[in-house]
Amino acid sequence: MQAADPVSQTGPPVGAAYDKVTYDPAFAAEEAAAGATSDPVVESKLRIKRDVNDPCSVNPNGYGPVSDPDTYASFMSDSQFGAIANAAVVPQGYSLSYSNMNGSAQGNGYMGLYTLQSFDTIKCQQYCDAAFSCYAINVYMERDPKYNPADSCPNPQSTTNFKCTLWGLPLTDTGATGQGQYRNQFRIGIRGSNGYSKFPPPAAQNGFDGPVAFGGAIQAPGNNMGSKYYPGVYDPGQCAAACTASTDYDKKYLSSNGAYDACNFFNSFVVSKNNQPQGTYCAMYTTPWDKSYSTNVGQYNGSDYYSVSQSYGYTLNPQDPGTVSSSA
Q: Which residues of 120-133 are buried (b: 16+ CB within 10 A; e: fewer)?
């Protein structure tokens, strides 16, 4: 087997606060097809823009704690960072790949970076679920310079950022090798690095196309038939059965023109209260909806946060027109 070409980027840019996810699955498929029939391989056009900051300019202040004294050695031995990482919840729909490492994820499959306001694994999960082909996340704390190091400010004070990176491949502890590096005399450090990999998708359902991964629950402008909730194990098969039964029931009560509500699409997902899963939710529709409508990732009810995970869409094939002909 021929070795793969080296990838152009195996992790986030040093000191970056944001690195936009630019992966386009349609373009990637087109490029792969072109590469399979041409030699040399077509040069990749998937590029991530990097910010170039002015020397000694002020960087955004991080939300994490700063070690005392403010040195790299103190940061790397400070027990509070390990405590933060170990206390983090595992997002629903993901498994813990590793925890409290002193290195960020590196390697193939890097997709983008977000800076968070806390060690918020659920927020990072929501970013991943909203992105195409995201299968894992890395949440960690990074010691960054308060000012961009230069000869006139070679070793500035530090700030601690909570960072979330998205990955198109599952993560393992052997890939947590990003140790930070020097910027002039300032040394970047990584602490409390947790990796989480997404569960495999649920099973296909007879008579339906799918599952198609969504970023959240569908929030469509119409054609909603209603929803069902089933406590216990997450099982989209319950949704498929409810969808089919709803159509069969409505066929018994036709309108005057022979029309009925046909369930042509359902969205199955898990709603968790403060990261504790409640069961299988099924939203049923007469018309299919795509991922661009899966924008309901969660909300607060008082002090409780209800988050959405493992959201998938299933489309009836063939579609039911929702009418009975006069000759039937």
A: bbbbbbbbbbbbeb
Question: pTM for the complete prediction?
Answer: 0.80
Q: CA–CA separation, 311 vs 328, rounded Å?
A: 38
Backbone angles phi, psi at 305, to 5 degrees: -110, 125
- State how far the Cα of 269 lies from the Cα of 306, in Å rounded to an integer: 12
- The count of other CB atoms within 10 Å of the CB of residue 247 is 20
pLDDT tens-digit profile of 189-205?
A: 999 999 999 999 999 99
Listed in sequence order, the DSSP H helices in the chain are 25-36, 72-77, 79-86, 121-130, 236-251
The span from the CA of 291 to the CA of 97, in Å, is 27
Residues 85 and 101: their CA atoms lie apart, in Å, by: 9
DSSP class per residue in 99-127: EEESSB--STTEEEEEEESS--HHHHHHH
CB neighbours of 209 closer than 8 A, spacing ≥ 6?
A: 314, 315, 316, 317
Distance CA 113, CA 122 (A): 15
Q: Alpha-carbon Rg of the chain, whole angstroms?
A: 24
Q: Which helix H or strand E contains 212, and what residues bound it? A: strand 208-213
CA 227 to chain centre: 25
Strand partners, 290: none
pLDDT score recorded for residue 17 = 63
The pLDDT > 70 percentage for the chain reads 83
